[in-house]
Amino acid sequence: MLTEREILSTLEMLRNENLDVRTVTLGINLLDCAGAELNAVRRRIAERVMSLAGRLVPVCDRVGQKYGIPVVNKRIAVSPISVVGAALSPPELVEIAHTLDAAAREVHVDFIGGFSALVEKGISRGDRSLIAAIPEALTTTERVCASVNVASTRAGINMDAVLLMGRTIQAAAQRTADRDGCACTKLCVFANIPEDIPFMAGAYLGIGEADAVINVGVSGPGVVKKAIDRALGARSALDLGSLSELIKKTAYKVTRVGELIGREVAQQLGIPFGVVDLSLAPTPNVGDSVGEIFQCLGLLAIGVPGTTAALALLNDAVKKGGAFASSRVGGLSGAFIPVSEDLNISEAVRDGHLCLEKLEAITSVCSVGLDMIAIPGDTTPETISAIIADEMAIGVFNNKTTAARLIPVPGKTAGDQAFFGGLMGHATIISVNNGRGDNPFIRRGGHIPAPIHSLKN
């Protein structure tokens, strides 16, 4: 039960500290829309999305107005299209992407995720067709997001899939060369992908989920920063244990707000409530940055020595506070470090404090991995695959979710600026070691076996 003081502090979060519900995501099961006849599949998908999501946006707006808590993004996640469209060809799957995009536009949602494949153990015909369709699908749609899970702690790393995704990312970037490779901003490569992510571009509805479900993603890096600033203003000598406790209590309040909104939206739609993803997901706006939290803790900038320890503290405290607040915590739930989407992190790259190697190191203790990183456009597909493989190894061998969202920007080199617009922000292009070099290791393919600690039965 919140005390009067805690209620007042939550109201302060709403007024002055960028507290919002970052996304309400409606998961929709499309498995019974599958078939071999394209037009029939497209019709069934459109009907299903329209019937379940037609009221999503007005209900979210109404609930947000009721509590004075804005729901910033309304999104849809569907069953993996590699399964739904397993009998279809790559050009036909591009048409499925157009159907999803049109349906999302019709119901006024921001993004629709689930143009996805799960290939950690092997690549089926449907998986291969979907991956082949990704570059064209993401180039010719506005709202469709794609994700491919290429590794898991139980299965190891599918290096054939990793190599294929490096080529896919480069192809998607080339198709949107006039827009700084922006198709790649809607594509994530995962290890240990959860089935209930509300945040894009990784959102999809897992095979083990219900016919429809409401998942909520809360945020609030600005809230955490302001709480730390207030505490240090009152007692400048606070130690890290005390600051961890403060972050934990702040995450508790943020999570309670998110669950309140999510449950009411679910009730009004007559759809089961799923999970709260309590990730600290920043935006390009001033005052809504994860990077600023590192500075208020005492670091010059994210990327300098001490960054990994600070991120470990932050991520752990956020998870503990959220887990205490709700029994329905899921998704990614932790701190995001998306370079282009966080103004402070983007500036740290520009100023030379943060490099690709340090980003990889700190993903060992964060929630989502190498996120929204612009790299030189002439980086070879093999090198892109090698970066992905390194990140997948961190996830597999540490038994955690991680991902890579890399954007090779055609025609630009390290130090140039890439502009993606809106929520995607802008970034300084980061240098890549051996970016144009050969890599026979990656071309060997096969599987990197699962670690010994995967044998848990």
Could you please describe the fold and organization of this structure?
This protein is α/β, with parallel strands linked by helices and 457 residues long. Helix content is 44%, strand content 17%. It has helices at residues 4-16, 38-53, 56-67, 81-84, 90-106, 125-139, 159-175, 221-234, 240-269, 291-296, 307-325, 343-350, 356-362, 381-397, 440-443; strands at 21-28, 71-78, 111-118, 144-152, 156-158, 187-191, 212-218, 273-277, 370-376, 402-409, 417-419, 426-428, 447-448. A hairpin with a 6-residue loop joins β11 (417-419) and β12 (426-428). α9 crosses α11 (307-325). The longest helix has 30 residues, at 240-269. The mean pLDDT is 88.
Rg calc:
21 Å
Tally of DSSP β-strands: 13
The helix content is 40-55%
Q: Work out the strand percent.
A: 15-25%
Helix and strand composition category? alpha/beta
Q: Determine the number of helices (DSSP H or I, runs of at least 4 residues).
A: 15
Low-confidence stretches: none
Order of helices and strands: HEHHEHHEHEEHEEHHEHHHHEHEEEHE
Quaternary structure type? single chain
Shape: globular
